[in-house]
Amino acid sequence: MEPARFDEMRSGAYDIRARVADMDLNGIHASLNFPSFLPGFAGQRLQLVTKDQELAMASVRAWNDWHLEEWAGTFPDRIIPCQIPWLLDAEVGAEMVETNAARGFKAVSFSEDPSKLGFPTLHSGYWEPILAACAETGTVINLHIGSSGSSPTTTADAPSDVAGVLFFAYAIYAAVDWLFSLAPVRHPDLQICLSEGGIGWVPALLDRLDHMGRYSEMYGTWTGDLTPAEVLQRNFYFCAVEDPSAFSLRHRIGIEHILLESDYPHCDSTWPNTQAVIEHEIGTLPAADIRKLTWENASTLYRHPVPEDVQEDPDAF
């Protein structure tokens, strides 16, 4: 977390040609990249650091233009375009989602808990226009864990290891909060992908949802023909970085809703050994399962086709 010069960083963090070269080294055909620290995972820093909304809007548009035209546009077959949203007015934000979908964006990087950024909660109704626009355009809502600027921990004097170990727990918080916002009930076509949250907790959450369902009369907030567990399995997608124990429960999670991550260029990335990690974790599974987990699910979710020659040749790029 120390300040660093560009020449001290791996150039794949900011140079798209170097990024793709590192993807080649890692055996990755296509990737969805997040905005991370500079604008904030949901673009919040560009919008909250100034009271000049024209400047904020120009900054958000400039980021999205650059990402689509220069970052993804230089290698359109290798990078899946992901926008940052306009948060200061949900109606305007919805119009931006619709416009960007027509331009070729496949996803939006949103906050798992916008209330921690000073915005209305998921239960307030404020975000409804953006949610509707995402559902109507097929824009996947990517919830990168930690995008609210916080992560689970225990006490103020707990060592940093505690927050590191508990990092995945925010994925559980986010999944439950988004689920019971009823957004995926109101919008059955909404697709919500939890990034960098792991998958090992998903079966336990499904069990807990089934358990709580037997006591629904005590709460009375759930509506819809499907149970909460069924909606979770229909509308949510989960990303595995290193979850070797969880793949034995892949069918309980929903095998078509599991994607793989490498977390490049972070220090805890599986790069450049992602292929070895994947082989260790799922190499003994049936070929059809490996195909879904390694690329087919992501290709389908983000509507990013993989050429036949790449499908047939695992060493092709």
What does this structure look like?
- The chain has 14 helices and 8 strands.
- It is α/β, with parallel strands linked by helices and 317 residues long.
- The strands form 2 sheets. A 6-stranded parallel beta sheet has the order 3-4-5-6-7-8. Strands 1-2 form a two-stranded parallel ribbon.
- Strand 7, helix 11 and strand 8 form a beta-alpha-beta unit.
- Helix 4 packs parallel to helix 5.
- The model has no long low-confidence stretch (mean pLDDT 94).
Keywords:
single chain; 317 residues; alpha/beta; TIM Barrel; six-stranded parallel beta sheet; two-stranded parallel sheet; 8 strands
Mean pLDDT: 94
* Biggest β-sheet: strands ordered side by side in the sheet: 3-4-5-6-7-8
Measured by DSSP, the beta-strand proportion falls in 5-15%
Give the SSE order as H and E letters: HEHHEEHEHEHHHEHHEHEHHH
Broad CATH class: Alpha Beta
